[in-house]
Amino acid sequence: MRKLVTAVVTAVTVALVSTSVIAGEWKKIRIGVEGAYPPFSSITADGKLVGFDIDIANALCAELGAECELVPQDWDGIIPALLAKKYDAIIASMSITEERKKKVAFTNKYYNTPAKFVRRKGSGIEISMEGLKGKTVGVQRATTHDNFITGEFGEAVDIKRYATQDEAYLDAVAGRLDLLLADSVAMDDGFLKTDQGKDFEFVGPGYSEVKYFGEGAGIAVRKEDQDLVDMLNKAIDAIRANGTYEKINSNYFEFDVYGG
C-alpha cells in the first residue's frame, strides 16, 4: 500500500515556444493529484509522482509556459482542498458530473474510459440483479463508481467503500470482497496485469452512462477561475493536435484513451 507523501513535487519550468498557449497571469499553476490510482497516478518508492495524469499535467503546464506544482491530496478531500485554495486545479481522473459541477468548473474531457466489474476467476458470478444478490462489492468512496453501484444495484449488494483503490484491491485479494467496480483501464493495468491480480478477471459489460459517469475525466477548477479553464481547454486541444498527447498515451495504453 503506497502512502501519500506530503511534500510538494515541483516540475521544471518550461520556456514558452511559438506554439504554446499564452498563460497570461498564470505563471505558476498548482495542481492537486491523488497519487494512488495507477496507471493514472501513483507514487514510487522514492516519492516520485508518476502516471498518465501526472504526464498530462506537466504537458499542459509546458504548453502554457507555466511552472507546474503537483500537490498530492487524498481523494476524499480533493475538492474541498481546491475550494480552500490549496491548489488551483485538479488532475486526478475526476469524471465531469452534474453533481460536481455544482461545486467546481470543469475543462473539456482529457480522457474517457468505461467502468467494469472484476470477479475472482472460477467464482461464476454474473452481473444481474439476481446474480449480485447478497454479494459484497468494493468501490472507492465518493466516486462515480460508488454512485453507480448504489443507484443500480444498491438494493441487492453489500457495498464496501474505500479511501483508495489500492485498499479495495487488498481486500479483494484477502477474500473480503466478491467483486470490484472501478475504471476498466485502471483495474486492468493497476491490478489484473499484476501478480496481485492474477486470479481475477473482468465480468459483464462496460458502463459509461452519462447519468452516473458524466462526460469523461476533466480538470476541476474553482468557478471564479474561468480564465484558467479556458487556457487549459486550449492547452488540451494543443497537445492533442501536436502529438504530445499521443506520445503520453502510448507510454501507458495500446489504444486512444481519449475515447469517442
Question: Your description of this structure?
Answer:
The chain has 260 residues and is an alpha/beta fold. It has two domains: 9-111 and 215-252, D-Maltodextrin-Binding Protein, domain 2, CATH 3.40.190; 115-212, D-Maltodextrin-Binding Protein, domain 2, CATH 3.40.190. Helix content is 31%, strand content 25%. The chain has nine helices and 14 strands. The strands form three sheets. Strands 1-6-2-7-14-8 form a six-stranded mixed beta sheet. Strands 11-10-12-9-13 form a five-stranded mixed beta sheet, sandwiched between helices. A hairpin with a 5-residue loop joins β4 and β5 (49-50). α1 (52-64) packs across α8 and α1 runs antiparallel to α9. The radius of gyration is 18 Å and the shape is globular. Residues 1-23 have low confidence and may be disordered.
